[in-house]
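Quick one, T. Sequence first:
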Amino acid sequence: MAKLKLKKTKKPDQKADANTTKDENMVVLPPVRMSDDPLPKQVKWINRQRVLVFAARGINHRHRHLMEDIKRLMPHHKTESKMERSKNLYVVNEISEMKNCNKCLLFEGRKMRDLYLWMSNVPNGPSAKFLIENIYTMGELKMTGNCLKGSRPLLSFDPQFTKDPHYSLLKELLIQTFGVPRYHPKSQPFFDHVYTFMILDNRIWFRNYQILSEDGALAEIGPRFVLNPVKIFSGSFGGTTLWENPKYVSPAKLRQAMSKKAGNKYERRIEKKAMHEATKPETGYPDIEGADFFKGDPMEQAEEVVVKEEVNDEADVSGDEEVDHSDDEEVDASNDEIPETKRKPKFNMKLNKTKPEKTIRRKQLKAKSKAISDQIKKRKNKQFKKKSVKS
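Structure tokens:
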């Protein structure tokens, strides 16, 4: 009976503890609520970032596929139909306000080749303009990585973003644009992929990886592209320029330089031919006549050639004007008095045979090559003048 009494005494204590915890968790509502008072709401989705992603007319199919890939990666985006080229960029601020967006990504194409990206904080700025290079879409890459649609990404930045002020501004703009807000209705509460932004060669390189395991194993998903920053403006799609890239060269200028380099190829080829004709010898072996030289013992043939050269040189020396040998006689007399070991050596001065015909021919060929190059330059100048008159 004593055991039963002990059990009965424990039960009212447990009930009392439960009642106290319930009283603490209970929210006491007012007895009367006015009809005008709003209902209390528990706010979770605090960071209400919405990004407007659309393009202007003039982009090709690859640029459109890249835009669609970026839309898939951003569950907090909103779309809009293509904008006309004739419209001013300040209209984009009004479009984004109508769509209730505070960030904007505008893709702008030039000549169906080049793609520019405007990244802006609507409506007060700042905004940045990029040239997109090395585009590879998800359809082209076909990588093994995969992630859940709508999941939130981790953003990884290069340490160089903190060193320069313009890169730190671009880092904040990229975080607010590509970062998916917490508790967004279209997002999933998982982190299964990483966006990496690396700085190399004054450009921002974008990569998207899947997180395979907690130890850091990754697999690339795509897409790939490189952002070459052009300018940073204080306002949204305009305003004063805060920073300008001094190393930026437009792709049209690069193409112009390449075509000019290819155009000069014809001139260089003609000049090479003319120089070759001017410097080309008359025969392959000018001092050897006939193929009999290569027959027989080579040492004997070489001795015969040396003897012939010596005979020709002596004949040339005797045929030329007499040279004053008074100094040589004085040296010989002094050498007779000096022993043989300390005598000065004698030098035989050989006069080289001149060939006036060759020099005349070379001068003629050089003059010909100069005339050809002058004609080419005149033609080019005429073509350039015609183009300038037409334009």
